[in-house]
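Technical annex B. To support the medicinal chemistry partners, we prepared a structural model of the target in complex with nicotinamide-adenine-dinucleotide, based solely on the information shown next.
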Amino acid sequence: MNVMEIFETMDYGPAPEAAAPALAWLKERQTFGLFINNQWVKPASGQYLDSINPSTGKPLTQIAAGNSADVDAAVAAARGAFELWGKTPGHIRARYMYAIARHIQKHSRLLAVLESLDNGKPIRETRDIDIPLVARHFYYHAGWAQLMASELPGYEPVGVVGQIIPWNFPLLMLAWKIAPALAMGNTVVLKPARYTSLTALKFAEIIQEIGLLPGVVNIVTGEASQVGEALVRHPDVNKIAFTGSTDVGRSLRRATAGSGKKLSLELGGKSPFIVFDDADLDSVVEGIVDAIWFNQGQVCCAGSRLLVQEDIADRLIEKVRARMEKLRIGDPLDKAVDIGAIVSSAQLKQIQSLVAQGVEEGAVMWQPSWACPTDGYFFPPTLFTNVSPATTIAQVEIFGPVLVSMTFRTPAEAVALANNTRYGLAASVWSENINLALDVAPKLKAGTVWINCTNLFDASSGFGGYRESGFGREGGKEGLYEYVRPAWETDKSSTTDFPIAKEYAPANGSKPSLDEDVEDHAPLSDGYTEFPPIDRTPKMFINGKQARPDSGYSRNVYDPEGRVIGQVGEGNRKDIRNAVEAAHAAEGWAAGTTHNRAQILYYMAENLSAREDEFARRIVQQTGRAHEDAVAEVQATVSRLFSYAAWSDKFEGDVHRPPLRGVVLAMKEAIGVIGIACPDEYPLLGFISLIAPAIAMGNTIIVIPSQQSPLSATDFYQVLETSDLPDGVVNIVTGDRDTLSQVLADHDDVDAMWYFGPLEGCKRVELASAGNMKRTWVSYGHPRNWLDPARGEGEEFLREATQVKNIWVPYGE
Ligand code: NAD
């Protein structure tokens, strides 16, 4: 081709990046062992696995096939190192993390080339996106190591963390896992994905180079069934951090249920890319390229569903096809290539089969006229039109360069279509009307929303899902809480030094008598020696109304002496269903003003305070505790309501300034409908300590009061009724805690479940939550001192009641 021809076609020539240094690095090492205690060790199995270059289908090298014995050794190393690393001052940890970031930059080209060879992604991406973001992640978290003591007082590291990552961003996912873990003082055992371990092994060399304490970072390669499962089940691992598919995430939720291991899950997605008719279509086209052809579409947050306003759909589709025709596919080490290879032959087959299914289901498939390379695993960019929202290709994560497009007419329809998925990872909104875009963004069920941009990431802005895209965040301050716990949780000496209803004896030694009932006593008429108490029937409270139980049965409530002091409704599945329906109908609560929510919480406090004596007597009656002690509980409850009234308009989001022209709005959003099972200790304070933060943050709730002492909660509906609370925001269903919790945890329309009760019940809730991957918060059978504000209220509760949505808003011409 001569210069004239090049000018005419405006085609690129090849611009190959040299593979030689990376190949020499591989050759020098021949095979790779496991990295444990800063040593390279042979796998117990003596077996090795081929690591394949997906752009040629040929082996690059061999990696160790670890097994459970290796995991045992790695966990032991991490446990040993935790003794020191967990106590190492933040500044020293920060120095090590700074050194890691520097060394990543020093080896950046080798890492970029290795990543391309191993994964098949274009060098342009590994060089300009993956590796710089890896370095940025370690710098950012070096800062949090430095600041931990001042910014997270009262928190301590979790301990040994097992981390499992996928193959699509091998080194970046490693950074997202290891950086926050180390910053917070944890030690780790990381399992890279089977197909893409090489940059993790180069990272291990960096750990050696910088002289990190042996055992702080351990890397065990191998198959999921050998290494991954052993890590998840290991009894000495305190937390599992997982990124991967929703199905595997679900199995991890089940495997860890009841173990007390902390769990964070970053799972799959089917993210919408919404284009309104006033969008700048040329920018939109480039956005689509970045959304679905970046990394061959093997991106958890890929904009794989194109939703276009009807009147511009034809014009946009035509432009997209023209652009697709110009995309370049081929050798990932060619700097002029847009699309590299699919990671493995198995993944390629999966994409091919889903695309064939799309055609069978009647959608119209379009691919560019050019052909893909025949060596290696390549798949052309693909566009489906005429797609119906319920079909497989519109619902299932294809994880390949395949875009499905649908149309909408109005913004409301766009939101409905966008949210018509079980996932909730990310979304893009394209419109030149910022009012429209900012109105739509909060309505999308997604952890990240990009406005007029897509697939932007930064360490300062947390990333993570809603719904079946998982729970937990990586990045930002919110991501740090995945790797810490309140220090008081491990302070064994002080967990039982407070009264628990069951065991508490009255302070003055005397038993309160039954006539110390909630009814006031008037003078007796002649002929009567005492008034019979007026019978009171505590009802359930559903949709703002007192409700009788569907079962028609009641259950007795006893005092500590075993005397019957009342009956409450025996709630069942039907009552819970009605309550969930009411809670859903009340979801407008989240859209109301925080000022209004604060006012209502203050009003509740006012109304409770006016009935202090009545509520105190009820506590005495149920628990046998001294009257002064019960009064103290009511007063603490009033104060708690004040606290959450105060927090309603103060637990706000942040504005991040990532390295781009623009801002990221980190908004703390309500989770949605939360099921809450209350503790038995402190029947009133325990109940309010859970419902107040939930509703303060805009959630609507179904609450199961203390099973043992439910009458404080059933009395409370009278306070709710007089406090202007909209119907359905708080629903109270009494009955057997575990039966009712099971229904809530199984329910697909419940978004989170809090359970404060016995360990066995916690396990059941965690197991059942795997159905729709609802977020859970359980007590693992440990009672809490609700009177102590450091344990019974505050940011821990508010964080559990919210999820962060990051809205990226670039600006400038
Ligand atoms: P995968 O779930 O098959 O595997 C992920 C990791 O888990 C691998 O290391 C694998 O070996 C291991 N694993 C598999 N089964 C296991 C088990 N039973 N026990 C323990 N470990 C097990 O996912 P993948 O195919 O490697 O990656 C693609 C998926 O990852 C996609 O669904 C994608 O959306 C998701 N992903 C999510 C994010 C995010 O941040 N949300 C980021 C990247 C990828």
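Notes passed to the chemistry partners:
Residues 500-521 have pLDDT under 50 and may be disordered.
The two ends are 38 Å apart (CA to CA).
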